[in-house]
Amino acid sequence: MRPQPPIITAPKTYRVKSYGCQMNVYDGERMSEVLAARGIVPAGEGEDADLVVLNTCHIREKAAEKTYSDIGRLAAAGREKGRSPLIAVAGCVAQAEGEEIMARAPAVSIVVGPQAYHRLPEMLDKAAKGERATDTDMPAIAKFDALPERRKRSPSAFLTVQEGCDKFCTYCVVPYTRGAEISRPFSHLVAEAGKLVEQGAKEITLLGQNVNAWAGEDEKGRAAGLGGLIRRLAAIDGLERIRYTTSHPNDMADDLIAAHGEVDKLMPYLHLPVQAGSDRVLKAMNRQHTAESYLKIIEKFRAVRPDIAISGDFIVGFPGESEAEFAETLSIVDEVRYAQCFSFKYSPRPGTPAATLEGQIAPEAMAERLHRLQTRLAEHQHAFNRASEGKACTILIDRKGRNPGQWLGKSPWLQSVWIDAPAAIGDMVSVTLAEAGPNSLRGVPA
Ligand code: SAH
Ligand code: SF4
Ligand code: F3S
């Protein structure tokens, strides 16, 4: 093995690189706040950071592999410069493969799981002494209580309300990397949301692996579900928009559906993954719902909010999936007419029951099915966008457009809308939607 250059043990600057889901983005922000509280500042653009936190994702093989290629790249750059950044691996790969990372990658000093990152300061103390530190505990005391106050300034913010998963879909690593389902207390969430709004958030997206499993007690001690929490958050002055993701069909309460008909700030958008259209495949996935029970839920949402945009996740090529079963996935796509979706080739994950099932599908067949599915999903997305032409709505500006003078924002239905008019990030602009493309629309300011 090539010699290891000296590692920076007293970092002054940091960079957090988050992969995977929105919860990892949220965790990345919270880790930044932990580091900032210790006086470590973000590295400037294009500048090497003294401390690099790789906030990793284990969901599919490709995602997990990025961890090792990133470590390799950082280690090589370190050798070239004669001093290596302090590398911390966080997130779901850290949880799943912490020991392996420490064994394989001497350039890594810290391995910290998704439930332990509030202990980063102690781990940095160890690193300062030149020691390596691993923490992949899932402590009973929630990390949230130990984290510093929110400092994130952004018009659109994430807020984790629920974490973990007890569902054990047979293909999925999340129950192992994130642990059991927990709900954060109502009062803490109201307080954190208030802080985010104080710092400029106009939109808050509530996050959870099964966000609609959130349960708690409201200020009067009454049992509340996600619908109740949303109603309370809607009372926060200055908060304009509320979203939530990801929901599970089996945790869908009528009160949450009803909230879509009553709470103006709750956006007309629902991300409700179904994964597959065949009941046999759904059973083998241990989804514990059928295509029909899923469709019933969608129907209920459309009854209270006819314009609701539906989005979902799909897996093609689950072990044993026949051509006829795949065709049932295409059918459910046509039935729901999704506004937007994420779709993936099945990736066998170590330690999950599906990885050892008979009938693993050949990669070429999976690629071909994914292509057919994505073509169909794109048609529906374009149709949804076309049906929006002529609608008046507000967009929340979140970035500059490609051409000078252009700005991009999100419609209530989470479509990307661009305008050719003066604006700034965080502005709420009234527009009429015009000219729908497959992935975006033009907005004409009112
Ligand atoms: N808790 C959410 C999201 C979990 S991960 C839910 O239940 O819907 C996000 C998506 O990744 C899943 O919805 C699924 O479509 C996909 N996914 C999970 N494991 C996978 C695997 N082994 N191979 C391919 N896709 C997978
Ligand atoms: Fe994974 Fe299923 Fe849990 Fe979603 S519900 S996180 S897909 S095990
Ligand atoms: Fe990935 Fe972990 Fe999220 S595996 S999708 S980062 S919960």
From TrEMBL:
Monomer. [4Fe-4S] cluster 2 binds at C165, C169, C172. It comes from Erythrobacter neustonensis. Transmembrane segments: none annotated. This is tRNA-2-methylthio-N(6)-dimethylallyladenosine synthase. The gene is miaB. It is an enzyme of class 2 (transferase). It catalyses: N(6)-dimethylallyladenosine(37) in tRNA + (sulfur carrier)-SH + AH2 + 2 S-adenosyl-L-methionine = 2-methylsulfanyl-N(6)-dimethylallyladenosine(37) in tRNA + (sulfur carrier)-H + 5'-deoxyadenosine + L-methionine + A + S-adenosyl-L-homocysteine + 2 H(+). PROSITE patterns: MTTASE_N, MTTASE_RADICAL, RADICAL_SAM, TRAM. Its EC number is 2.8.4.3. The keyword Signal does not apply. GO terms for molecular function: 4 iron, 4 sulfur cluster binding; metal ion binding; tRNA-2-methylthio-N(6)-dimethylallyladenosine(37) synthase activity. [4Fe-4S] cluster 1 binds at C21, C57, C92. Residues 386-446 form the TRAM domain. PANTHER family: CDK5 REGULATORY SUBUNIT-ASSOCIATED PROTEIN 1 (PTHR43020), MITOCHONDRIAL TRNA METHYLTHIOTRANSFERASE CDK5RAP1 (PTHR43020:SF2). The keyword Transferase applies. Keywords: 4Fe-4S, Cytoplasm, Iron, Iron-sulfur, Metal-binding, S-adenosyl-L-methionine, Transferase, tRNA processing. Residues 151-383 form the Radical SAM core domain.
